[in-house]
Predict the structure.
Amino acid sequence: MRIIIDTHIYFWWVTGDRHLPATVRGLLDGGSADVLMSAVVPWELATKNRLGKWPSARRVLDEIEQLLTAGQMTALPITTLHAKIAGLFPADHRDPFDRILAAQARCESVPLVTVDPAFGAFNVELIP
């Protein structure tokens, strides 16, 4: 099963945070899922860290390359199609990071793992 994870899911997964639902932890730790890591995740972590909105993001930002190299995740670049779909979504949701993640989930035909109810506006498959 291929899945894409949002930024909070990634953060909670690598920090062992209790906010990560047990079912999601089992999916991520079990090795049965091909976890796609969108390029938007490090972009969002770095941006929010730089702006002082998420100071603890820095500690997990540097681990992304290690996890990709170890094969625990597969990198998913942002393509021009992803950008186009993100920009054309009729949803009023303005967060560009969320719009890209939703577009990638749609274009790649994979569910998005998130607990954020705002993604419901994009009509993509979600794993809560």
User: Anything to note?
Assistant: DSSP finds seven helices and five strands in the chain. The CA atoms of residues 37 and 75 lie 5 Å apart. Helices lie at 7-15, 22-29, 40-50, 58-61, 64-69, 80-88, 96-108.
